[in-house]
Amino acid sequence: MPPALTGGRLLLGAAPRRYRPQVAERLRLFQQLQDARERRAGGDADGGSPPVGTPIRIALPGGRCLHGRALQTTPRQVAEQLGSGLATSVLVARVNGALRDLEQPLEDDTELELLDFAAPEGRAAFWQSSAFVLGAVLEQFYGATLCSTVATEDGFFCDAHMGDRTVQRSELPALEDACMAFARAQHRFERLEATREQLGELFKHNSFQLQRIQEEVTSPTATVYRCGPLLQLCRGPLLGHTGLIGALRVLTSSAAFWGDPTERRSLQRVAAVAFPSTQELEAWQRAQDAAALRDHRRIGREQELFFFHKLSPGSCFFLPRGAHIYNALVDFIRSEYQARGFCERRRRDPFPQTHELPGPLQDDAHIFCTLEQLEAEIGGCLDFVRTVYATLGFSFRMALATRPDGFLGDAATWDRAEQQLERSLQDFGEPWELSPGDGAFYGPKVSFASRCRGRG
């Protein structure tokens, strides 16, 4: 039986009896595989790395260099050497350009960058780790089957299969309390590299994870993390332990679906946000309250610009004032777009064999050109976006999203496309960030996040 609700509080007892043997079995196998891995790591390094203990050079941003030992020195030890303040704030590391856990030993001479919550990569790792906490609570106290844990630009969410059970709004505060109790227990995040066969054994009781393995794992091995009783397929990196999560707010619970539209397996999606301290959570809440005052749905309604209807939730109905503004914007964008010689822009994919699944709506732009024309066209697109945003009083930040797991096509073509986008961004001259693995399955992309100047 799932936990009961009494006076707005969850009765968080033991997990359902039928669930315990599965948890014990998967944790026992995880530990066996972890022990075998550590025994192998105890010998000399292979694959071209120096022997264990060999002196290595660690280059830090700004030109400072430290000395370490191959397969012994970890990024966390480097942070501790640099000072207690950094050691308590750093979350993940960039090692020779690749993101790593702080506990993963350095293998040879290294360019090392230590990242905290202020860095997008550090924030993503923090929220992915927080999603593990939420997922563990959903499994442990609701008897749910966890499907996925996802970090987003604004927080994180978990999708879980709970049968006919739903998470009620009145239960969210108690769910919050359970998550923070789990976080305070300082569960470690343990990383394991496993073969596809081992992954199949670890997740044999979870059909959702088995499907993810089949669809997403294209290499001989993949990483799985343990956090307390939870195991989850995850690329990482993650935090050292859950105690670094100082504050967590559960925001919403809604329906979601697994797989293609023909399956329609019903899930619960629970969304949340977390921060290293309660002060940061409070500052976030103040920003949310301020943003609510600028909510376009409220403004559109109060200024009689447009309204929405449940029969067509993805598109608004313009009133006369709103139609005037809309037409003026369309005329402006059309003139700017045509002035740059782009060949076509459509709201829908022009190819009839494309089928759009239910979900967020988006405007698509399609440009047909040769490879030789690609650099100029991308540059023109970037200039177009900058001109429109500047005219409307918006600033923006950009990110280059690269090849994800489960991509289509060959790696060489992906590399060429990513290099082209990177060159165009460098030539563009505006700041941008790298978002590894966040590209679409069919190609890399440059994403824009905008905000109104002077309003945060």
Automatic annotation (TrEMBL):
Catalytic activity: tRNA(Thr) + L-threonine + ATP = L-threonyl-tRNA(Thr) + AMP + diphosphate + H(+)
Keyword set includes Nucleotidyltransferase: no
Gene Ontology process terms (BP): threonyl-tRNA aminoacylation
InterPro entries associated with the record: aa-tRNA-synth_II/BPL/LPL, Beta-grasp_dom_sf, TGS, TGS-like, Thr/Ala-tRNA-synth_IIc_edit, tRNA_SAD
SMART domains tied to this protein: tRNA_SAD
Domain TGS: residue ranges: 52-116
Sorted UniProt keywords: Aminoacyl-tRNA synthetase, ATP-binding, Ligase, Nucleotide-binding, Protein biosynthesis
EC supergroup of this enzyme: ligase
GO CC field: mitochondrion
Molecular-function GO terms, alphabetical: ATP binding; threonine-tRNA ligase activity
Pfam families given in the database record: TGS (PF02824), tRNA_SAD (PF07973)
EC numbers on record: 6.1.1.3
Keyword match Nucleotide-binding: yes
PANTHER family per record: THREONINE--TRNA LIGASE, MITOCHONDRIAL (PTHR11451:SF27), THREONINE-TRNA LIGASE (PTHR11451)
Protein name, as recorded: threonine--tRNA ligase
